[in-house]
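I keep forgetting this: the sequence line spells out the residues, with the fold written below as integer tokens. I include a record here:
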Amino acid sequence: MWLDVLERHMGKIIGAFVGLLFAIIVLKYGFFKALFITACAILGFFLGKRVDERIDLRSYLARLFYR
């Protein structure tokens, strides 16, 4: 039963958790600092994803920043 609920509503659960986490960060540090923390976390996620996919991080960053 619980696994069925988790399977059908995983996006909602994750979304609610992320929203709650962002709200806590905003209350603790302020809106703009929370945006900066969130941007850094998202950047870290995407860079980590590239590493997991075995993409050469150095050439990826070169293409990203030196167009």
Notes: The mean pLDDT is 85.
